[in-house]
């Protein structure tokens, strides 16, 4: 993590899509937390996509993660799209 290339960090986040019940939530958390302060649009969008995708499998975990972290508005909007 903490790769200086935001494109590689974005790819790492996007590679989390589709893991469903095999998702390593500790790994996903660390990846997102490493970029909480990043204002890079593509990173924030990828964070939201990863959360949105995982919310289909574990909406409670995603809702709790969003509630307990200071995410960007973009990440929250994307990540909470399927939450009730």
TrEMBL record:
Pfam families under this entry?
A: DNA_alkylation
Record-given protein name = DNA alkylation repair enzyme
Origin organism of this chain?
Answer: Pediococcus argentinicus
Q: Species lineage, top-down?
A: Bacteria, Bacillati, Bacillota, Bacilli, Lactobacillales
